[in-house]
Amino acid sequence: MEHEVKHDQDDLRFYIVIDEEEAELTYSYTEEDTMDFDHTFVPESARGQGVAHNLARHGLDFARENNCKAIASCPVVEAFVKRNPEYNDIMLWP
């Protein structure tokens, strides 16, 4: 089931509302053109349904569309990129 991902640029997060709870992917800007994806949270009732995958894809697509590089401080985003190497061109790895 695909959920609508919303982007709150003021709070620096992508989120999905699921049954009155929120799943989110937060980020910060380390430089004007570098986004650090630092935390993913999915409510227990929604885990295993591809929600984190959906958030990571939207976040990384936003970075690409805005000519930003990305850092995967969050292990969920790191795992997503390792499974989806089409994002390697925008990643900054330590």
TrEMBL record:
CDD domains with a match to the protein in the record: NAT_SF
Gene3D superfamilies cross-referenced by the UniProt entry: 3.40.630.30
Gene Ontology MF terms in the entry: acyltransferase activity
Domain N-acetyltransferase: 6-92
Organism of origin: Pontibacter populi
Keyword Transferase part of the UniProt annotation: yes
SUPFAM superfamilies assigned to the protein according to its UniProt record, in alphabetical order: Acyl-CoA N-acyltransferases (Nat)
InterPro entries xrefs: Acyl_CoA_acyltransferase, Gcn5-rel_NAT, GNAT_YJDJ
Name of this protein: GNAT family N-acetyltransferase
EC number: 2.3.1.-
Keywords tagged on the record: Acyltransferase, Transferase
Top-level taxon in the UniProt lineage: Bacteria
PROSITE patterns: GNAT_YJDJ
Record-linked Pfam families: Acetyltransf_CG
Keyword Transferase: yes
